[in-house]
Amino acid sequence: MRVLDIACGSGRHAVAAAERGAQVIGIDTDTAQLEEAGRAAAKARVSVDWQQKNLERDGLPDGPFDLVMMFNYLDRERLPAFLASVRPGGFFLAETFTEQQRELGWGPTSDAHLLKPCELWSLVEPYEIVLAREVLEMLDGRPMAVGSVLARRPAS
Description:
With 156 residues, this protein is an alpha/beta fold. The chain is 21% helix and 37% strand. The chain has a seven-stranded mixed beta sheet with strand order 3-2-1-4-5-7-6. Helix 1 (12-19) packs parallel to helix 2 (31-44).
């Protein structure tokens, strides 16, 4: 299975996929985060292809991918390219902050980085939604308002 982790940060999701046998590429702009991700992969004794990329100018690694993941990141302009990098029958998995996050005192505050209610579901059309949710949950002792989706690209 080929997996792409967009804006992978410290690599938590990429390492988890690699531990399950996937060939993973993790991309992020932040060199320090990628170094931390490399240490996490080494500790887990897995291999991940970490790539420093600025998506505004560098674009995505060559696909297609069986799974494209995007956590705590939102780029509406490039989302069609992210979805196009999923192979037919493959999956797109995303979770990011909703507008409700502003009320919680931490995290992004810009409209550009916050989902409107139920917006993520419409952003992945025409993919088939397998699972979708919007919740207020706790992360490391802090409340977090997120929207999530697991969507499957049509096979044809």
